[in-house]
Amino acid sequence: MTRIPTKQEVLDWISANPTLTSKRDIAKAFGIKGADRIDLKRILKELEAEGHLEKRKRSYRDPDRLPPVSVLQVKAPNADGDLFARPLEWHGEGVEPIVLIIARASDPALGEGDRILARLTVVHEEDHNYEARLIRRIGTNPRKIVGIFRKGAEGGRIVPIDKAGSTEWLVAEGAALGARDGELVEAEQAGPKNRMGLPRARIVERLGDPTAPKAVSLIAIHQHGIPDDFPDKVIAEADKAKPVGLKGREDLRDMPLLTIDPSDARDHDDACYAHADDDPKNPGGHVIWVAIADVAAYVRPGTALDGEARKRGNSSYFPDRVVPMLPDRLSGDLCSLHEGVPRACIAVRMRIDANGNKIDHRFVRGLMRSAASLTYAEVQEAIDGTPNDRTGPLLESVLKPLYAAYTALKKARADRQPLELDLPERKIVLNDKGEVESVAFRERLDAHRLIEEFMILANVAAAETLIAKRSPLLFRVHEEPAPEKLESLRETAQAAGLNLAKGQVLQTRHLNALLNAAAGTEDAELINLSTLRSMAQAYYSPENFGHFGLALRNYAHFTSPIRRYADLIVHRALISAHGWGKDGLTEDEIARLEETATHISDTERRSMMAERDTTDRYLAAYLSERVGNEFTGRISGIARFGAFVKMEETGADGLVPVRSLGREFFHFDREAGTLMGSDSGLIIAIGQRVTVRLTEATPVTGGLELELLSIDDQALPRGRGPAKRSTRRKAASTKRKKDKIKRKVERKRRQR
């Protein structure tokens, strides 16, 4: 019988072999085979439960540290010439570890954007947590710059538009592409990086007036490298596509399937229908149909269309435009479930009991015809008693049965207890000129929740079917919060006089109990924000680790293949598993599922950042006319350089620079997430209610600068507040005059 290693032996192996930490690697290292793997699995689970390890995809690592050997991306040198790097293997939601690169004489010159493999050492310095020593450079990403061109005597400079305040770039006269002074441009690095002086760039595209309203999203698209032009070959393939017929499909055209979407929806990729179950064995039960656009019938593996869709990963949505995953011929036409038009679909028929529990389901490849394309608002109005000409004829036969099924699903949801965060989403409303007209809360109607519950049920059915058929697929994974994140949330709750249970396996119901206890109190937003911050980020994976937030064991994205590549993969898996045709999942796709999962998880994060940056710029433009006004808000983040404040009225995030907090030194406590004044003892922490004055709004970068006036209704300590702007200007002017006199005296002394 094989000797099973002790827990300490396993931990020692993982520490000594950071690149060989999968269960298979560990089993191989200790010679564990066959049934003995069960004991190894038990040991790993126990170490995970005790907080010694965390599971990341198929490997285990210490949750409190970066791996000893990590992939890093080099940042631009700081003012002192020190080179820092961003750890690409950092998965936390909190403050990112700071890594200083320790260069040796034999190391090659490194520059911003370089990706390196490095060996890390934990340190406890004031300005960094890790020191990195280069193992090898593993390549660079193409360096793109989006900024404002400033014309000079011999070419000019590009001033970057990002809020991080990156370095400027020199542009030679012949590399300016005719750009005018003040124009928004995209450029790329020209020539090798220099150790001295500004780097050089050449302009590759002129983007126009940076202050134009419609340039806002364009800036984010280019800055984050989101492809927004389809290659000619991709467009040609899409234009050749023709509607799919009934052959080999189930005829669903007489079923009154409805699409229910926002009023400004660009596409319609899901439809639903429900009716009472007539099976006497299921009293009070319901039958729910969810039909999804059959994108796989048009986008085949190995085609230019497929390559471009995978490259984009998903559609990106901005207040004034959409950058779609698929060309409009497909996304807005052939794949969109338009009212009264036959459309190819993959549909699932699901039976639920009176308490909303799914009894069974089956998938079909069909041809449907939407009975109506409705909006959330008009559906809700019809149910509330004011139907219109479109919803009136459908009220009794279609809409009420949908809501009856939803009522049952609500019971199952209440039993399951998914995470119930209460963080209202704000919507930017633009006028015809593309300018911000208002910032409003997005409505949350029962019509929205109905569609969400139907889609979740269909996603679960897809995952369960493919698991049962032993088919490869991509799961939507949301892992449990890290222990240190939970401890931080627990401390925040205790400070608010609330309690988060300890010493048991965390479930979403425990977090919901905390959120319910905070509801209606002045700490409700703080607890909701802190709970959100404690959550891990969801991602795609060919391995199933469950979905913590939804409290579901099996979950995959199936319902949005027009705008998400993950859903298209699931559709292809269903086609192969059911033997519906030759357009299913190929062996090549199966072989690179892990690579695809990583790629589309990255493109999803890229879109989220671009969308967030666009929102920041629109809000900065909206608030630029209100500089000097006072606003209320809450501290939403703490950094060494200042405190972030989320303003209540608009949801905009602004920065209170630490330099504006007064004449004392403020100590930054990374673990506690606080700034503390050295003289006054003033503590600034996440969640505090504050009053601020808007001192600066920069639409081009999206930056908002604030002055802190009060914390928790208490004015700042007297004598410690920021000096008046006029006083600061006067002091600076006086200093310049004194320095000028000193230099003049020194020159005369030397002349003697």
Automatic annotation (TrEMBL):
Which keywords, in A-to-Z order, does the entry hold? Cytoplasm, Exonuclease, Hydrolase, Nuclease, RNA-binding
Q: Where is this region: Disordered?
A: 716-752
The answer to whether keyword RNA-binding applies is yes
Q: What's the Enzyme Commission number for this chain? A: 3.1.13.1
Q: InterPro entries in the record, alphabetically?
A: CSD2 (IPR040476), NA-bd_OB-fold (IPR012340), RNase_II/R (IPR001900), RNase_II/R_CS (IPR022966), RNase_II/RNase_R (IPR004476), RNase_R (IPR011805), RNR_Ribonuclease (IPR050180), S1_domain (IPR003029)
Give the catalysed reaction(s), semicolon-separated.
Exonucleolytic cleavage in the 3'- to 5'-direction to yield nucleoside 5'-phosphates
**Enzyme class (EC, first level):** hydrolase
**Basic residues composition-biased segments:** 721-752
Report if keyword Nuclease is assigned.
yes
**Which Pfam families would you find in this protein's record?**
CSD2 (PF17876), RNB (PF00773), S1 (PF00575)
Which CDD domains does UniProt cross-reference here? S1_RNase_R
Subcellular location per the Swiss-Prot or TrEMBL entry: Cytoplasm
**Where in this chain does the record put each S1 motif domain?**
628-709
Q: What does this protein do?
A: 3'-5' exoribonuclease that releases 5'-nucleoside monophosphates and is involved in maturation of structured RNAs.
Family from the record: Belongs to the RNR ribonuclease family. RNase R subfamily.
Q: What name is this protein filed under?
A: Ribonuclease R
| Species name | Ruegeria atlantica
